[in-house]
Amino acid sequence: MCLALPGRIEARMDGPNGLPFARVRFGAITQDVCLSFVPDAAVGDYVIVHVGFAIQRLDTVEAERTLALAAAPATKSPSEDANSRATGGAKPEGAS
Amino acid sequence: MRYVDELRDPKLAHALSSRIRAATTRPWTIMEVCGGQTHTLARYGLEELLPEGITIVHGPGCPVCVTPAAVIDRAVAIACTAGVVLHTYGDMLRVPASHGDLLAARSRGADVRVVLSPLEAVEAARLDPSREHVFFSVGFETTAPAAAAAVELAEALGLERFSVLAAHVRVPPVLEVLLGDPRTRIDGLLAAGHVCTVMGTGEYAPIAARHRLPIVVTGFEPIDLLEGIARTIEQLEAGRSEVEIQYARAVRPEGSAGARGAIERVFEVADRPFRGLGEVPAGGLVLRDRFARFDATRRIAVEVASAEPDTRCRAGEVLRGLLRPLDCPELGKGCTPEHPLGAPMVSSEGACAAYHRHRARKELPR
Predict the structure, then answer these.
(1) Which among A9, A7, A13, A12 is positioned nearest to A26, based on CA atoms?
(2) What CATH code is assigned to B1-306?
(3) In which band, very low, low, confident or very high, does the pLDDT at A1 lie, cut at 50, 70 and 90?
């Protein structure tokens, strides 16, 4: 029921009642997908598709990061990591 | 397929296996709560890549499995009502209910149609106003936005004979019930990736804090599962209990605004009985009063007489992670996909179906 797949937007078009739709490619097949939840998704973007709807855009930078870093052990706590990304390296108040 | 195949790389899987072994110094029990994750674990034999002492437990991550028989009985009764067309996702067809399943109803002449999207049901209703079209919508938060969109589209199109039989469930309240049960012994949790794609991670921080449980939002490919497990173990070994996102390519902390907005406009939270788990406070979604005319429960009056489930089925224990499907005496004997005793054997995401299907495998190819 939560099975969703990433596909690439090849074209955008109007669907029933003016809803935004896209032709999305999954390998060898394409499917028409409703973009009403991600109306700004563009041709060339990858989206996560579930029961005929794009529910989110796929973040390709994060996808590459997952592949590059998956095998390396975490070197710091995730909250420190997230804070340093958010603040550009400055330590949050109260951190040791 | 891009962003799928790379996440199935055996070399990366073995590197992650080494990372997990290097990190693990003590036994840990980790629960995953999405049927899609259960199936990946079983299909690729990923548990064989984990050190002794790491136990993966499968929770109630199969929305089909937790749908009470009474809900399916209502769907069957509605389908058997003259002039009704029932549209349903395929995996609901063979879920056992009190007096046969939807497939049996179809073989007796009920118009039951399988759809891949609720938009197909709306289109059918638009093209055929002579009959009452009902869309049977089951799922966690991942699937609810599509049902919400279908209701809003039906309203915009002015459809007079379309309604939704909605049996949507929410993950965080189910987790609270499980974690509040003294029989539950888990150390860490892999949160369901696509549920969090929609809803974000905000509801999980209080759970992590209250139960001192690391929660790693994890995807569905083998590399995702292994990385999620690695990060959970690394938190446990360091004594941390934080929410983190492994499935960052598809999950943002704030979720998907468009999808969440649709749920918020159309549904509201309600208590919900879960098959095998009992009543879950705030565990479900029901259509708001504003959309009452699109609510099949309010719109179509039927007699529903539900019977006791087959007591040989131990789905309740499986869904709580207290019984591993391989340890169930009925698996493959009294309970098979052809003659299921309960929903976890039928559903494409059910834990019992996963183990029955993949237990012949011996080893992950090297």
Answers:
(1) A7
(2) 3.40.50.11740
(3) very low
